[in-house]
Amino acid sequence: MPLQFVRSSLFALPRNLLRTPFLVTKLRSQAMGSYTASSQSSKLIFRQLFEKESSTYTYLLADVSHPDKPALLIDPVDKTVDRDLSLVKELGLKLIYALNTHVHADHVTGTGLIKTKSPGVKSIISKASGSKADLLVEPGDKVSFGDLFLEVRATPGHTLGCITYVTGDGPDQPQPRMAFTGDALLIRGCGRTDFQGGSSLQLYKSVHSQIFTLPKDTLIYPAHDYKGFSVSTVEEEMLYNPRLTKNQETFKGIMENLNLAYPKMMDIAVPANMVCGLQDMTS
After folding, report:
1. Residues 142/150, Cβ–Cβ less than 8 Å
2. How is 181-219 classified by DSSP, letter by letter?
3. 51, 60, 115, 238: which could form a disulfide with 47 (CB 3.0–4.6 Å)?
4. What is the pLDDT of residues 82-135, one digit of tens each?
5. Is the pTM of this model over 0.90?
């Protein structure tokens, strides 16, 4: 199924949107050691999956109203690829894309491994990341799967190439909207800014201009959580995020004094993730 990109610089958000019920449930799976959140509208099937070693969330979305049931994965992890592909098969979906929000430093992406196990799947990452993938996206692009789509928003600051994927705006798209923020915006936190071209000033501007301008009921789904949270909203983070509710200078001071340890997987993960998670395709 071909990728459909629509380039646009317009981010106006109509307020007169139809609202449909959105159900979120959380199940604990002892066998897989993961948390799963599920949601279903008339079109969208959604699963939130957890990789416990790096505390990474992977997201599965599919258009079940389309005959092909096209699906995509956001931020897959190499260690849980078999779990993810098994779920795709069980749900009768056709995986077409594996997306990354940025070049991760704490785990190896599963996109390359997915491509070896499911020929035809295309990998996606931002052009600004400087890394390799089948498709390189830019701000304003739309990644379509069936009749649904994700809008690409540039949210650099944690890394140079961070992007946020936001579900479509309109009565034919699932509501409320969902923002997959990677490490730019976490629940009651944000990603560090002291490596990979990070900038606290850039991150502050990214979140306030590209995420906090979304409708207040937009659901926030980050790439990680370390405190047991699974979802937030734009309104909650605007009110309660202990870093991003501060002014710009205070935020900069907070980020410059975190004194975080060097990521233990960085020297392995970053080189691998620059080439879609596989450093040597031949081997």
Report:
1. yes
2. EETTSBTTB----SSTT--HHHHHHHIIIIITTS-TTPE
3. 60
4. 999 999 999 999 999 999 999 999 899 999 999 999 999 999 999 999 999 999
5. no
At 41 the pLDDT is 62
**Tens digit of each residue's pLDDT (9 = 90 or more) over 188-214:** 999 999 988 899 999 999 999 999 999
d(C-alpha 76, C-alpha 118), whole Å:
14
Can you tell me whether residue 96 is helix, strand or coil?
strand
**Which letter, b or e, does each residue of 197-210 get, where b requires 16 or more Cβ atoms within 10 Å of its Cβ?**
bbbbebbbebbeeb
Question: What whole-number distance in Å separates Cα of residue 148 and Cα of residue 167?
Answer: 8
CA distance 240 to 244: 9
Distances (CA, A) of 100 to 30, 42, 61, 171, 271: 27, 26, 14, 27, 15
Residues in the chain: 283
What are the tokens at 12?
């106006």
DSSP 106: S
Rounded Cα distance, 41 and 25, in Å: 13
Instruction: Give the C-alpha separation, 273 to 123, whole Å.
Output: 12
User: pLDDT > 70: what percent of the chain?
Assistant: 84
Cα–Cα distance for residue pair 12/89, rounded to 1 Å: 37
Residue 81: how many CA atoms within 13 Å on its side-chain side?
Answer: 17
